[in-house]
């Protein structure tokens, strides 16, 4: 019981410390932004020596911004619009490097396992079954897969992963298109499109399977050399 009281006390202290650091970072980022704008204005009328000093200062500002990015990865932050709609105002920031890396590793394994499952199911639908029911199961699996990816990627971004915006956006588009396929009624046009789509799905899953092993090996070597961030992902 005493240990539990101590735990709650430390937890309250941690929350206050997080709030204080977050406020301090926000203020400093605002000042750096103002300084950057001032330097841009001064650069237009600066001499050669002054221009060199401005470039050095801008380089230091960029380094400081990277430091703030690393610090914010361990601080609670407001969820984006998508996470707020799906999860509400829940803190999804993981506090330790081990927890962040474990979640990222789980995301990678989830993609790999689902890629294998999608390859098998698309092959079965293409060559073994010709039923709208099995097609609907496959399309529902696609909708669930891409929805889950968008949620997990949003959580990873909150935890410092530098996922490109186009990568997340194309998963939103894939979710929508998979929903269209799921609700597409059976008919001549659907049957004309079906085999091409299933063949493409098999090809895509196979390429993603090979790509995972190639990129995971490259990322492992680059992380060992200190050239890539621990939260970088395979695509």
From TrEMBL:
Record has Transport as a keyword: no
Its membrane topology: Multi-pass membrane protein
Assigned keywords, A-Z: Cell membrane, Endoplasmic reticulum, Membrane, Nucleus, Transmembrane, Transmembrane helix
Subcellular locations according to the entry: Cell membrane; Endoplasmic reticulum; Nucleus inner membrane
Listed GO biological process terms: fat cell differentiation
Residues that span the membrane, as ranges: 110-130, 136-155, 167-185
Protein name per UniProt: Transmembrane protein 120A
Record organism: Buceros rhinoceros silvestris
